[in-house]
Design goal:
The chain has 950 residues and is mainly α. Helix content is 65%, strand content 1%. It has a three-stranded antiparallel sheet with strand order 1-3-2.
């Protein structure tokens, strides 16, 4: 630092400032006079020479002719400001404030002296010479010291002199002294006002220079401070000059960082005038009259602010104001709506497309932040949030992500994301009309989405992160497409577990309406007939499987979703309240079947129609609502259906419903007596006393054996009552329920077996109930005996599916029941033999539940015991023998497993001896003919079994 600069620093140190020790002993005027004497003595220049030197140094040519006007010799304060400015200008021009060199460093004490000088210039030079419009407001922040005839030329000189010092970033005045910046901005507007009103002959270039000073100040000082100052200036300035300040305020609002600056400035200048900060900001930001580019800038600023708010918890409380402003801008015009939609698309873009060389598609932290952001935008408030219809195209990807993540919900961080996804889906669905819900549900069920709907890329998977057990990782995995995922089932589970009862009812009604129409499209039915007969069997099988999935997947999803939603308890009361609407839907479904008739048997499902008719009868019996108009229309549909069908059972149900609609007077005396008996049995079964339940069950059994027409027409009601009574803790009641199912089997085997197998495999039911159903199913099969061959596909597939269950007890039950079924259907097991061996081998190798392993071995033993003629099972004997021999001779195997294997080997040995005795006695072997089915397929050749390769 040169000696000249040190001289000026010493001069500043000798001046009396506001922080000096002798401040309390002298007045302000005396301090200024004392300082002027020191400055004149040190600088050795007159006031005119100082003004001339400053004009030349600052290069302000327009002031050369105004030297006398700049410095008023009678005004001591103005003269003091000029001398102070000359001093600090000498320091500034000879000091490099940006240098890091030791010799150029400026101490904090000296920086404080510079700030004191700036405060003196602002207080004694700028503030008294501000434009008169600043003093018209009451309680003006600038006080009443503003002169009636301000010296604009002095203001111009002082502004040019202190501007470089204002922009020194290391100077504390820029960050800490709000008053210096405020007065500086007011002085700039002073010259702009004077130029506009022609109060002084300032050129246009000077006005543009002043605006440039504001723009530069915007970039250097905290934007919140700038906005707060400009709002204060707007509040105190005269009415005629407000448009100038307002225009500058809007220009800064539309520039980058303007919205956040306004937000923080409003928060710090909160008042109690009855208008909240949110209302002021929203009104200021979202004016429809703003130019399109200006609105675009604000929209982009708000969107960036919202995303940054998720990562910065300190500003999360301001998000509501941002959302309110964004919603108003969104409603202004279509251009803003497109901006918001494009931005939303970019947030999930990584989940829509994947790159070839990319393994990690998206970081879990980014994904969770995105979901949290969407949750804040759409779910935190009904007033400030964005309209939920924006999320309609995102429904498939939201459901798919929910479906993937639901498997890992035990992790806390994952559970939070799962909760946000569920709220997003419930929000968008709960705000839709019935027509919109019908459109959305149909698209979700069929998987045929509009072009603008977004789906998760098929190669993107959610997996556990090995490096962080609390997070997941989103990666790219190329796997074969397994068909349409059952998104509707996941959505139904989500709705069932929520508190949105009204939404659950609406979705239930929509699905019920879709039941009769979904899956009846014939567009893909003809495509199977065009299969090239020369293609391989594997290709044909894949094509057929695709056709089946494409045709029936929607129907299956609707049935499963209805089954899930009907377990939602509030739905039952809502259905009772809206019984008329439900009956109208049933009528519409029935009319479709009536229009189809027997000429379209592939569309007419007799069991579905029977269930519909039974449900209608139940509704009309228990409903207190007047349904005369609906009954009249329903009767017409029934008459049409009755003429088109030839099925006796269906006609019986139609006849009973017709009699019920026409009234008790037209009902035959015999039907009245049958109905009374049925109702008596029903009331007994529905009672809570076990002995009354047993009495009702026995009455039902008696009616079924007598082929009571009314009871047969309500067989679905009897089945439902039997299933509900099955859970009774009394063993006697349970055994009688089994007898009832046996009686029902003789009436309708297929319906009873399908109902029991569905309940047995229903994973949403309790374990105890499923085990009871499995026991009933087995007893029913014992009652039918070998005639079970007609339902071997249902029974064997049911128990083999249960053998794959992750639940140990259920897997044990399935293997045990499968062993009994194999004993009954030993002759018909050959088609499933390979899969049977695979199941047993899988359980023995990787299973950890010992009872299930023992039951698996027992399957083979029971299968052998059910074989009558070993010659008919010769392809199956060698694999069974090898497996049982290995188990019986192994010392590493469980003792009871060895016992089961030994019993099987003994059974096989006995049957082999019997066969040999027949051959050695020279008796001709008799061919046993089993008539099981006219179109039975030949036995599969098992000689190529993998066990033969040992």
């Amino acid at each position: 630092m040169s000696s000249n600069v040190l001289k000026f620093w010493s001069l500043l140190e000798s001046l009396s400032g506001e922080t000096s020790n002798d401040q309390s002993t002298i007045s302000e005027d005396e301090r200024i006079k004392k300082n002027i004497e020191l400055l004149q003595k040190s600088l050795k220049l007159s006031q005119a020479e100082v003004v001339r030197a400053l004009i030349e140094d600052l290069d302000v040519p327009e002031l050369k002719s105004k030297e006398e006007s700049v410095g008023d010799k009678q005004d001591v304060k103005s003269r003091y400001c000029i001398y102070i400015l000359m001093t600090i200008r000498n320091i500034y021009t000879k000091t490099d404030f940006q240098s890091d060199k030791v010799e150029d460093l400026v101490s904090e004490y000296h920086k404080g002296l510079l700030c004191s000088c700036l405060e003196d210039i602002v207080e004694n030079g700028l503030k008294p010479n501000l434009h008169p419009s600043f003093r018209e407001a009451k309680n003006s922040v600038f006080g009443d010291r503003i002169r009636k005839t301000p010296n604009f030329w002095l203001v111009k000189l002082l502004l040019e002199g202190i501007s470089p010092l204002i922009h020194i970033k290391s100077l504390p005045a820029i960050r800490s002294s709000d008053e210096i910046i405020l007065c500086y901005m007011a002085a700039v507007f002073t010259l702009v006002f004077a130029s506009q009103t022609k109060e002084c002959d300032i050129k246009d270039t000077c006005e543009r220079n002043m605006i440039a000073k504001l723009n530069k100040l915007w970039n250097d000082v905290p934007k919140a401070m700038y906005f707060r100052n400009i709002m204060m200036i707007y509040g105190v300035v005269a009415k005629e000059n407000k448009p100038i300040v307002h225009r500058e305020m809007l220009m800064k609002l539309w520039s980058p960082g303007g919205f956040v600056a306004l937000l923080f400035a409003m928060h710090k200048s909160e008042n109690n005038e009855g208008q909240s900060i949110a209302d002021v900001v929203v009104k200021l930001v979202s004016q429809p009259s703003y130019p399109k580019k200006a609105q675009e800038s604000i929209v982009n600023q708000i969107l960036r602010f919202l995303k940054a708010s998720i990562e910065n918890k300190d500003v999360l409380s301001y998000m509501g104001i941002g959302l309110g402003s964004l919603r108003k801008l969104y409603e202004n015009n279509e251009y803003n709506r497109v901006l918001v939609k494009d931005w939303l698309m970019k947030q999930i873009q990584p989940l829509l497309n994947v790159q070839e060389d990319c393994i990690t598609v998206m970081e879990w932290s980014d994904f969770s932040s995105t979901v949290h952001l969407l949750f804040q935008i759409f779910c935190t408030s009904t007033v400030e949030c964005m309209p939920s219809d924006l999320l309609i195209p995102y429904i498939p990807i939201l459901i798919t992500c929910y479906q993937h993540i639901d498997n890992y919900k035990r992790k806390p961080s994952v559970n939070v994301v799962l909760s946000h996804l569920s709220h997003l889906l419930l929000r968008v669905l709960n705000n839709r009309t019935m027509d919109e819900l019908n459109f959305i549900t149909k698209n979700v069920v069929t998987g045929e989405y509009p072009k603008d709907w977004l789906t998760l890329h098929c190669n993107i998977k959610f997996e556990e992160d090995v490096l962080n057990s609390e997070h997941l990782k989103i990666v790219q995995r190329k796997e074969e497409n397994q068909g349409i995922d059952p998104l509707m089932n996941s959505l139904a589970e989500l709705i069932k577990n929520s508190t949105f009862s009204s939404l659950a009812y609406k979705i239930f009604i929509v699905l019920f309406r879709l039941f009769s129409t979904i899956g009846n499209q014939t567009k893909s039915a003809d495509s199977t007939s065009n299969i090239d007969l020369l293609i391989s069997n594997d290709d044909i099988q894949s094509r057929i499987m695709w056709e089946i999935s494409n045709r029936y997947n929607g129907k299956i999803q609707v049935i499963n979703a209805l089954q899930i939603l009907v377990e939602h308890k509030p739905i039952k009361s809502l259905l009772v309240e809206n019984i008329k609407e439900l009956l109208m839907i049933l009528q519409d479904i029935l009319s479709i079947y009536a229009d189809n008739g027997d000429e379209n048997n592939h569309l007419l499902d007799q069991s579905v129609v029977v269930i519909l008719l039974t449900l209608m009868r139940e509704i009309m019996e228990n409903s207190s609502t007047k349904l005369e108009n609906i009954k009249h229309e329903l009767l017409e549909k029934l008459l049409v259906l009755e003429t088109k069908t030839e099925d006796k059972d269906l006609k019986l149900h139609i006849g009973f419903l017709k009699e019920q609609i026409q009234g008790e007077n037209t009902m035959m005396e015999k039907n009245k007596i049958d109905k009374e008996k049925f109702e008596e049995a029903r009331s007994l079964v529905e009672s809570k006393e076990p002995y009354r339940q047993v009495e009702g069950i026995q009455l039902f059994i008696s009616l079924i054996r007598k082929r009571d027409e009314f009871t047969i027409s309500n067989v679905h009601v009897v089945t439902a009552l039997a299933l509900r009574t099955l859970t009774s803790p009394e063993s006697y009641t349970f055994l009688n329920c089994v007898r009832l199912f046996v009686a029902l089997v003789y009436f309708n085997e297929h319906m009873i077996l399908e109902t029991l197998t569905e309940d047995y495999l229903n994973e949403s039911a309790s374990m105890d109930y499923r085990l009871l159903v499995g026991e009933v199913l087995l007893k029913v099969c014992h009652e039918i005996g070998p005639l079970c061959y007609k339902y071997k596909n249902i029974l064997l597939n049911c128990y083999m599916y249960g053998c794959r269950s992750p639940l140990d007890e259920f897997r044990f039950s399935s293997f045990s029941n499968l062993a009994q079924i194999c004993k009954i259907l030993s002759y018909d097991v050959y088609k499933y033999f390979q899969e049977l061996l695979d199941l047993i081998n899988c359980e023995l190798t990787i299973g950890k539940y010992m009872p299930a392993k023992r039951a698996a071995v027992m399957v083979l033993s029971e299968l052998l015991s059910g074989m009558d003629n070993l010659m008919d099972f010769q392809e199956m004997l060698l694999p069974i023998y090898r497996l049982l021999k290995a188990l019986a001779s192994s010392e590493c195997v469980d003792e009871k497993i060895r016992v089961h294997a030994s019993v099987g080997l003994e059974t096989l040995a006995v049957k082999c001896k019997e066969l040999l005795l027949l051959t050695t006695s020279h008796e001709s072997l008799k061919k046993e003919i089993h008539i099981r089915g006219i179109k039975s397929k030949p036995k599969t050749n098992l000689k190529n079994h993998i066990l033969y390769m040992n």
